[in-house]
Amino acid sequence: MSTIRVHDKEFKPYLGAEMIADRVRAVAGEINKDYAGKRPLFIAILNGSFMFTADLFKEISIEAEICFIKLASYKGTKSSGHVITAIGLDIDLIGRHVVVLEDIIDTGKTMDAFLPQLVHQQPASLKIAALLHKPSATVYPIHVDYLGFSVPDEFLLGYGLDYDGLGRNIPSIYKLVQGIDKEERTH
Ligand code: IMP
Ligand code: MG
Question: Does 31 contact ligand 1 (Cβ within 6 A)?
Answer without folding.
Answer: no
